[in-house]
Amino acid sequence: xxxxxxxxxxxxxxxxxxxxxxxxxxxxxxxxxxxxxxxxxxxxxxxxxxxxxxxxxxxxxxxxxxxxxxxxxxxxxxxxxxxxxxxxxxxxxxxxxxxxxxxxxxxxxxxxxxxxxxxxxxxxxxxxxxxxxxxxxxxxxxxxxxxxxxxxxxxxxxxxxxxxxxxxxxxxxxxxxxxxxxxxxxxxxxxxxxxxxxxxxxxxxxxxxxxxxxxxxxxxxxxxxxxxxxxxxxxxxxxxxxxxxxxxxxxxxxx
Length: 255
Prior knowledge:
Blueprint: H1 3-14, H2 30-43, E1 46-51, E2 56-61, H3 65-68, H4 72-78, H5 80-85, H6 92-107, E3 117-127, E4 130-143, E5 149-158, E6 170-174, E7 180-181, H7 197-207, H8 212-219, H9 223-237, H10 242-251
Antiparallel strand pairs: 1-2, 1-5, 3-4, 3-6, 4-5, 6-7
């Protein structure tokens, strides 16, 4: 997809939120932005703050721009649309659809709920046929005084070789009640909510480094039962391996 088309598509959705004559107070967030930039350095993650009023990034701190070979001029011109344009051709349309639906969903929430949700999805980013796997989390950072969504914060991390995804997985989770919203139809039912309490318990112990025999001893079940639970987890959530399942569960706040 061409960045021009993507930018027009995104701005069409953003225009659904009318700021009227209200102008956000940028001085109130200067210290917060500086703190986030410092946090990105400490955590060794990439962060971006997107301004829905100006429809552009306020700041981007990426440790991957040289590896991915980001065209900084094109990124400055097209913003979010540029990054979607250099995603894997199978991922770009899904990610664009994700942004559009999340924007529409968020704009229609009651003011007191607009900061209660986190969006998480993965994608492949790169150029010349070489793609790197990322996972991104997005939350609402700031509202205007009248309750319009003003700033969005995204945190991106590159996945190691053994944690690659075969397709875009996307979720919107309510941080207060842990429930999933918006993209449940992707799997016809929420695959994570299909896990039993025992399966989540087994996954939690695996994430702590316990092997099947140790888990069996702790839960007073057989090793064969533990291995069945592990296989059922992978099949239910369509994960390629246990590491992938653990990482996604942690980002969703399940572990």
